[in-house]
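Raw record, unedited: Peroxidase
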Amino acid sequence: MAIKSCVLLLLPVVLLLLAGSSPAVAQLEIGYYSKTCPNVEAIVREEMEKIISAAPSLAGPLLRLHFHDCFVRGCDASVLLSSTEGNLAERDAKPNRSLRGFSSVDRVKAKLEAACPNTVSCADVLTLMARDAVVLAKGPTWPVALGRRDGKVSSATEAADNLPPAFGDIPLLTKIFASKNLDLKDLVVLSGAHTLGTAHCPSYADRLYNFSSAYNADPSLDSEYADKLRTRCKSADDKAMLSEMDPGSYKTFDTSYYRHVAKRRGLFQSDAALLTDATTMEYVQRIASGKFDDDFFKDFSESMIKMGNVGVLTGAEGEIRKKCYIAN
């Protein structure tokens, strides 16, 4: 509790500083719905408590939905739109085919529509759900400024072009993050979200089989861990098998992810890449020591605030969708 109290005390200052740095972000407000839907956060939290209580493994996927939304066209809920006859939407792009949690978002949105019709955007709903997913998985909390509007465009091509790939190295990942006004520290901190959730075999199988002409397996992956993964992932074509991204702790938000990465047991190449840069490696090793959990919680909260402000639509931009999967 002391950790979370510290985060709550420090973050409003951070939020104000971030808000002052961008005209769009300045229009996001704490308490944005205080007059039009004063119970918005309580409604979202109550429904999220039911969702995570029934399916604790959904915390990771709901956090991932928010990530994948913000990296394509900004945090505008475009990832939630369904494909139409003439358009393949983000959610059907190859990197997004394993996304889950859409029905949970629809469920929360329906509760808000019943309480406050045509008021709360899907983009705000998803941002609040991601925060609450972390809190309910025993992670930190942070204040969420609201007032995002929903986008009307969703493109699978844009998703494929903008999402950080699991095979990414530091130069590529740094470039992608920088395009969203996120820096190297945000990269290593937000990678800590891999403490929650699972991954399908095809997303990491290339590290286990025919990695290169010189190596069958990725030499940056601990060999014993690689052997263990092969028992679950029999081939690169196995699309049914799941592996925990943070083995033994994938439903709990903690720092054990960094201990796995420090031991060369990160599941993705992008995890292993954190050990190839002096700055990110130092952060991994520091948090992996287990002595700075409160620092990581604070850092993660600050980086989530930054990411949640990426490319937002405000004011008269976009719309407030009635249903998150279809534009009005």
